[in-house]
């Protein structure tokens, strides 16, 4: 999609993405199937849904370099590991515990972006990030690490957070030269193959599940994957990986509220207050990011080239 044809403020697609991914943990908890099977069919169904949209980009495949294919393959492996670790954590601990640890992702993304891309973040944006992470920590404070099983779930969630941060940074680099739909399709395809190999190696059955489980697989594909991950991959062309990671901090809020309504998992007053703090930190981070983008645009427009006095950062169209 051409950036100039998109006039909707960035907060709208980000909000849609946050709501969509908030349902992911609920669906995982509802299914009785192994997480590797859930993840495999989740991505497989997503691939089928994406075919009509990615077909027009098929000619790009013959123009990709060997290095790009290697990076796509690595990104797909990391995504598979993320789903395996994080979805596995939901079987061992609560939604609040798992999603709160997942919300630490901006820290790893920010460190990785600085090391890999020399991408700097303003002090005010970093402060907003700290505020949001503190609020997210309050959400899961009451039930993190209270037993051996919960600790195992916590560790899996942290591992899932690290690998998805690396996955996003690789994606940010690849999306500079690859259509977002093609990137998502290739990465999902690799992840499906990884899960298929994983299931066959461990003799995990890939058929024989209930109609309810198959319905959940489809919901996982449509809601958190298409309207969550695919949407965020597309947004990586418009905003930084750190911004997307910061937006995902809204997931613990939505997931915890849904867990109360649909899973009967209680939410304490501390967790409720923490949710409000998360949203406050998220709002100020997006505002600071918008201001930083505008400042960069102003610097660029002050130095016109070849008689062109209007040189804009395309991301300026995406206003928080």
UniProtKB/TrEMBL annotation:
Entry keyword set: Membrane, Transmembrane, Transmembrane helix
Positions of transmembrane segments: 7-27, 39-57, 69-89, 95-117, 129-149, 155-175, 182-202, 214-236, 243-263, 269-286
Keyword Transmembrane helix applies: yes
Region of interest (Disordered), residue spans: 295-320
Top-level taxonomic group: Bacteria
Pfam families in the record: EamA
Residue ranges of every copy of the EamA domain listed in the record: 14-139, 153-286
Subcellular location(s) per record: Endomembrane system
Record flagged with keyword Membrane: yes
Membrane topology: Multi-pass membrane protein
Biased composition (Basic and acidic residues): 310-320
Family: Belongs to the EamA transporter family.
Protein name: Drug/metabolite transporter (DMT)-like permease
Organism: Fictibacillus barbaricus
